[in-house]
Amino acid sequence: MNVSRRAVLRATAVTSAGLVAGPTAASLLTGSPASAAATLPGVEPFIATYRTNVAADLTVTGNAAVRILSGMQRVWRTGTAWNTGTVLDHAVQRANMRHVVKITRARTPEQAARAFIQDRQHQSYAATAGLGPLAPIYREGALAVTGITSAPDGTPPTKIDDAVPAGAPAGAALGAGSPSSALGQVVTLVNTLRGPFSSGNPSKTAYQYPRPWRMTESGQVVDTGKVDELGYPVYDSPVTVAAQLLRQRSTTPADDGGMPSGHANAFHLAALAYAYAIPERFQELVTAALDLADTRIVSGMHSPLDVIGGRVLATALAAAILGDPANAALKAQAREQARAYLTARVGADLHGYAHGGTTATDPYADRAANARIALPKLTYDLPRTGVRGVPMVVPAGAEVLLETRLPYLTAEQRREVLRTTAIESGHPLLDGPELWGRLNLFAAADGYGAFDRTVEVVMDAAAGGFAAADAWRNDIGGRGGLVKSGTGALTLTGDNDYRGGTHLRAGALIAAAASALGRGDVTVTGGELRVAGALRVRGEFVQRGGTLTVPARAGRGAIVTVDDEADLGGVLTVDDRSAAGRRPIELTVLRARHVRGRFARVVSAAGRRVTVDHGRTAVTVRLH
């Protein structure tokens, strides 16, 4: 039965804190922040209760979505009607509204047009922008289309909805596409994540936090008693809505709460479904979801709190639905279908093709630019008025979000990635029960943020994809170390400071930054340690087997600088394949406080004759 939010609100007694029936969100959060971090006592985790997210129950104990967003009750106390709420955290409220005012006042015509398109276009279609070079291939295979590709110059006379355009291929569908298409399993996965228990509407009704264009900076709702030329009530608000969207607004505010943003929830749900099936674009899809959700603020339709709430809810829903045993076969089939379909069209190097675009054709082609887009939008720099320094407790089941992006890690290791890349505590909405809001999936796509114990990574080149080759780009700290095993290749690019040392047993480990191997000893007993430029070992260097590969970079100091002693063995390979001409090259391969032993064999990758000098403190090589 379809129950309207207004009917539910009217039919249910409202508590003094504004949430219906049973303990209020505020009462559940009166304990220590650490207690709010994990599942509430006596309450099952979100992943086990996500199906309670229905309009018939708006309580924090009965509705899992309302519960995980209950950090909002530190900011806002819901009133007995939509316009009688009370601001509890004035610093957050002021910053929240000031951001919308600033953005909408500076909004350009191009930004307004884009905001209209993202408002009216099916969100599952919009999220395909995160697929970059794969987007047109996906849309063709999925028969995904949209009828919203441009914006009117002014305010349209009526509401506009997306529709299948004339001339679309037979069987074409809005959103993610057609379930009967060549990518039907992926389409079904997207639709499943956006299924009957994924709405933000129950939480909108429960919290009754007004849209920004109905609020003053202080959080008051002031109805002037007037209507504009379109017949909409006029509110005393400094926020201006984009002209193209004026007729797209709701005229029934009791049914039109702001937090969480339904569009933001939908963008993130669709993006995370695509990211599971096509993890080669995981980080770009996360970026796209944050970027698309931000258009809700640019349009004036939502505030940062609304958009953050949508992301928090979608993150939890995606994990719950992907982790639901009922969807185990579907998610595996969607991943395999996407891989097979896309590789058949672009070749075996799917990752390379997926990242082969330029910013002219792929809005998310530049990782550094993506970081500038994504990371500020995790918090919008709202004041950290909560308790700082609260340890992160990863929500139950969250590790499934990284299942295809980091397939070579165990479930527990993926939880550690999420924990060590999480957002710091102190943001009221993010600090709600289970801490779904503190997950930082953009950073998690780049591997660990810290090794708090020794981490063994086992990669399998035969499995292909990320199991064959991956890169961790975070700056990794912590007291633990890294053990690299298996046949795959792992690249470290960060300014790393982990203190437990590095041990290469098998496969390839590529040091793509001078401090890539952190602090502590570096031991090579097998595999290939590949130095991309220069490397500093802040401890001992011990090579008992395997291969050390260095570039032919003469005249720039030692390639490998060892702070302590070096004990050598195994093979040294000089990668001189790109060296110009055949002129002799002399380079200092390694310099240490003291050098013991010698390389068993030294070879030139280009086949040159090599002479080696193993000195007391340095190893030099001459290529003839």
Task: Note the topology.
Elements: H1 5-11, H2 25-28, H3 33-37, H4 46-49, H5 64-68, E1 76-77, E2 86-87, H6 90-105, H7 109-120, H8 123-126, H9 135-142, E3 144-145, E4 173-174, H10 184-193, H11 201-207, E5 223-227, E6 233-235, H12 262-277, H13 282-298, H14 304-323, H15 328-346, H16 350-354, H17 367-374, H18 411-420, H19 441-444, E7 455-459, E8 469-472, E9 482-486, E10 489-492, E11 502-504, E12 508-511, E13 522-524, E14 528-531, E15 535-537, E16 541-543, E17 547-551, E18 560-562, E19 565-568, E20 571-575, E21 585-591, E22 594-597, E23 601-604, E24 610-614, E25 618-623
Parallel strand pairs: 3-4, 7-9, 8-10, 9-11, 10-12, 11-13, 12-14, 13-16, 14-17, 15-18, 16-19, 17-20, 18-21, 19-22, 20-23
Antiparallel strand pairs: 1-2, 5-6, 21-25, 24-25
Helix pairs in contact: 1-11, 7-13, 10-12, 10-15, 12-13, 12-14, 13-17
